[in-house]
Design brief:
Length: about 375
């Protein structure tokens, strides 16, 4: 029987099969679905010809060229971690939304599927690493659209500055911020060339201060690709680097791969269709995805009164994903009003169904929508209109 503490540091075996009873338990906090369980151990970031692995390697080569031999690389850390590692050790406050089971997959009250690779910051510092890149699959209950998926991949980067780089805490923080931004702008240029449009946006993370997000202009919109900042002193002090300065970032690998390879929808990363997979080859950063099919989406609207017991969009999305799997492309709130007499609120959502691989029949879509409607009543206790 593995102890919880070992979870965070035990490496995944190749083609690991995570025992189901360790993930879907009867603990009252458990909210891991079959759908999510099925993704564990897929390790897309370790399949050499997969775009997620290709982008990982491209980022590695940027860091290797910049600082040869400096960054330790870890890509096989177990995705089941303690809530302590995922939240407490990176200073996530007790009442922060991300701790809510509406946002995070819990195995039991003390164990989660990591919701970010920042879960490995503290333990990796404790192992003595000063500069490292940690890549892995992360899990989140979230809304559904072309750039959000409940399982995705992140790469965490951390670098503790050399003490010679600064004279006091204030100058250390300035040097860290500058080196961080220079590094990530350099990375964007390495991946995308000089034509790419990027912008920095101020952000908040409990584990960095100041904090920033980088956005890239893609398909007519600003797409958020990473979060970063100057590491909170308390994390360094608690894990072997007292008084030292560091920066950290967390990259969304799907988002970067979408931009690099012109991949229009995040679901494509999960297809086993050779028409997708054969378009990518280890080391080839120049591939542009050629859609092999372009089927129109089919839209279905559903309206309902919200229950007094509470309702969340993440719950709705999990129901829809559980029924339609990767056939659902987006779930969007299109109308919302409150009836003052009834003191009730009604939401109308538009669900877009579209397969990446084939055309769907009306019958199939109607069947999915009917199941969604009954599950809304039975599981989410809404009153359909
Ligand atoms: C984090 O996860 C922070 N841990 C990042 C960080 C690390 C900040 C170290 C500071 C220091 P955020 O929740 O914004 O931040 O996610 C980081 C990136 O993951 C996003 O910019 C985005 O590219 C990607 N991402 C987030 N949610 C999803 C999703 N549902 N599907 C696909 N990619 C996502
Ligand atoms: Mg963010």
């Amino acid at each position: 029987n593995r102890s919880r503490r070992q979870y965070a540091v035990a490496p995944c075996a190749e083609a690991q099969t995570v025992p189901k009873e360790e993930v879907i338990t009867d603990h009252p906090f458990n909210n891991v679905t079959e759908n999510i369980f099925a993704k564990l151990g897929a390790n897309l970031h370790r399949r050499p010809d997969h775009p997620i692995c290709i982008i990982k390697e491209a980022i590695y080569s940027f860091f290797d060229e910049r600082r040869p031999g400096v960054y330790a690389k870890l890509d096989d850390l177990y995705p089941v971690v303690s809530a302590k590692a995922n939240f407490d050790e990176v200073l996530v406050p007790a009442d922060h939304v991300s701790r809510n089971p509406n946002d995070t997959y819990y195995i039991d009250s003390e164990t989660v599927l990591r919701c970010h690779t920042s879960a490995h910051q503290a333990e990796t510092l404790r192992k003595g690493e000063r500069a490292f890149l940690v890549t892995g699959d992360v899990y989140r209950r979230d809304t559904i659209d072309q750039s959000h998926y409940p399982v995705f991949h992140q790469m965490e980067g951390v670098k503790v500055l050399d003490p010679e780089q600064y004279s006091d805490a204030a100058s250390g923080a300035r040097v860290a911020e500058k080196e961080l931004k220079d590094t990530l702008e350099g990375l964007a240029e390495h991946l995308f060339g000089q034509g790419i449009e990027t912008r920095w946006v101020d952000a908040y993370f409990p584990f960095t201060d100041p904090s920033f997000e980088l956005e890239i202009f893609f398909n007519g919109e600003w797409l958020e690709v990473l979060g970063c900042g100057v590491m909170e002193q308390q994390i360094l002090d608690a894990n072997g680097y007292e008084g030292q300065k560091a920066w950290a970032f967390g990259l969304g690998l799907e988002r970067l791969a979408m931009v690099l390879f012109s991949i229009p929808d995040i679901r494509l990363f999960w297809t086993e269709d050779q028409r997708f997979l054969k378009q990518f080859k280890a080391g080839n950063l120049g591939a542009k995805f050629k859609p092999y099919s372009r089927f129109p989406p089919c839209y279905k609207d559903v309206s309902f009164w919200l229950p007094e017991t509470g309702f969340t969009e993440n719950n709705l999305c999990e129901v829809v994903r559980g029924i339609a799997g990767d056939l659902v492309e987006s779930v969007e709130l299109i109308d919302n009003f409150t009836n003052p007499k009834k003191q009730k609120t009604s939401n109308c959502y538009r669900i877009a169904y579209r397969s990446m691989d084939r055309s769907l029949t009306d019958e199939e879509i109607n069947g999915l929508q009917d199941s969604v409607r009954s599950s809304l009543t039975d599981d989410l206790k809404v009153e359909l209109r």
